[in-house]
Amino acid sequence: VENSDVTSTEMAEREVLNPANIGFIGCGNMAQALLKAFVKEGLVDPSQVVASAPSDRNLSKIRPIGVKTTNDNNRVVCESDMVFLCVKPHLLADVIEGLDPLERNHNPLFVSVITGFDLHTLEQMLSSIVDAPRVVRTMPNTPCMVGQGCCVYTLGRFATSGDGSVMNSMLKSVGVSAQVPEYQIDAACGLAGSGPAYIYAAIEALADGGVKMGLPRHLAQTLAAQTVKGAATMVMETGKHPGQLKDEVCSPGGTTITAMHVLERNGLRNALISAVEASANRSKELGKK
């Protein structure tokens, strides 16, 4: 038997999707990240994907991979077995209002990546076009584009266990995937959804520090990014608490413990905790508007 990196279980999971038709309403950064990752991983056939947006600005970015594009949201819903809702929160009501009622034999799975909107609200809104809408609420992040995403999801009242299995298969193909109770989605937004931006800012600041102390910019940025990647891998692969790993780097009276004192004095922990809290609270606010 020929060895393969793809297990029989993974092959079966992929067969669940193909040849399903996948649709995207909205084609911003998150939609592009998910779509390109799904295609790269072989989960979907580009020819069976249709994406819509009001203009060609973003659609032009995905045409080269072979997907169909349109300005008609109704076409996406009518042609798809699974529809990713990827529009800005303030646009969702108008988008759904513009959709025509579906035929009785067509009940696609709606996957929301929209910040703030809870399952009850989504189901209520989508009931204007289909009875008992099947809805999954997700919170992915943009590192999905490079297979290193953090994705959580929760199932609506009418979504089936099979829907959950398919969703998990798709999301874990682009990183870490976990099903969570809905009340945890906003917290996940604050941590993992917004988190990449916090880390980019940290990498930029570390690189600036390296430049200040004499390193060339390109080398400083490479060292900063690799340091973050290496530290994250240590946490994931060793299973040790981050505090323990930190202590292992801090020699008595050494350079690192001296630097850690500066970080504590300037409120690094408080800033990160407060950032997660602020993002999570903003996610809740967006859903109430």
UniProtKB/TrEMBL annotation:
The keyword Cytoplasm applies. Its EC number is 1.5.1.2. Residues 182-286 form the Pyrroline-5-carboxylate reductase dimerisation domain. NADP(+) binds at residues 25-30. GO terms for biological process: L-proline biosynthetic process. Residues 22-113 form the Pyrroline-5-carboxylate reductase catalytic N-terminal domain. This is Pyrroline-5-carboxylate reductase.
